[in-house]
Amino acid sequence: MNQFKKVAFYTLGCKLNFSETSTISRLFEESGFAKVDFDDTPDVYVINTCSVTENADKKCKQLVKRATKINPEAFIVIVGCYAQLKPEEIAKIQGVDMVLGANEKFNILEHLENQEGKREKAAVAYDNIKKTNDFVPSFSIGDRTRSFLKVQDGCDYFCTFCTIPLARGKSRNASIEETLKEAQKIADTDVKEVVLTGVNIGDFGQGEGENFFQLIQELDNINGIDRYRISSIEPNLLSNEIIDFCLSDSRGFVPHFHIPLQSGSNRLLKLMRRKYERELYAERVNQIKSIRPDACIGVDVIVGFPGETDEDFFETINFLKDLDISYLHVFTYSERANTGAPKLGEKVPMEVRRERSKQLHLLSDRKKRQFYTENLNSNRTVLFEQEEDEGVMFGFTENYVKVKYPYNSTLTNTFQKIRLTEIDRDGIMKCELIKE
Question: Are strands 429-433 and 415-423 parallel, antiparallel or unpaired?
Fold first, then answer.
């Protein structure tokens, strides 16, 4: 491994992947590697993959091709969900030298120890996902403003559209005590905001003595972290006590929830093996809004699930129109190997999927515009980020309104009291500072 000096990383997919890439990156740096940009001719590339959609698979192949053009001699390692699900398929991609499954990705330096450079045939190290029992704590550091803290991994739900349990294994986590130690490491830096992430974070503790509500209560007591966001939580696990705590009693948790719905049709929710009906979902939204009318609520929706009829889709779109939500993340269903969904109904033509996706994206734009309009002329607190774009800086309010302000380096990574004054043509809020 002595010939390897520089390493570059690329992360596809979710916030959880970003937290894990950051942890792997620190392992390299502690071993004497210089972390460089993708284009800076590194000796080793580590590509952390996603496999939620077919597009993520294609993106992995494109990145390998790009890496080999930048440095034909670079050693290319693929980790992540795609690497666990289809290791042999990845091993055949020209330029790939090593594929590490879920059990091996954090042992990457050991696997590199005896490598002498490019390989004719990729080395593959992975095991049956059922043998994945360890929880490896992870958090991202690099963006000074916020950190993604992994509090849970894996999932026991086996929704019929999802490969995550096959890629990441069963639901597991560290203890609250161990999780607090990781959070304290973040608190000791200049990061101001922590995003709690995982595959199914509401399942923390799996009902064995500790739970997610207890975790967030303890995290709220840590000095040095000003804000917490919950990345995504299942509606059946988002209890009223969690909602009440975050919105009424906590010091640091913000009025922003991201709650997967997937469909507004109870028929489809049952076929998807979701653990709730839309009535429960509406209850959760109404509970949040009854406490904080200004709370931001994001929603995941899938279009084109097998057997989704026009009636099912209109149920979804009408349900969402009536809900007091703030934005949508729209996913176009794609067939995944070893999932139950393809057997459950007739395949929805791709052009129909695209049209339904377009309608939901338009609805999302309207919902976001309405939410921003409701926030006009209100006073908020923004955390400004460090990036500059043509003399402008950006940040997010506690309730996830994106704001812009003329760039001022002294405001980077600081909280500022602001008044929201105008929605610009890009759908971003202009603001003015409130002088105290």
Answer: antiparallel
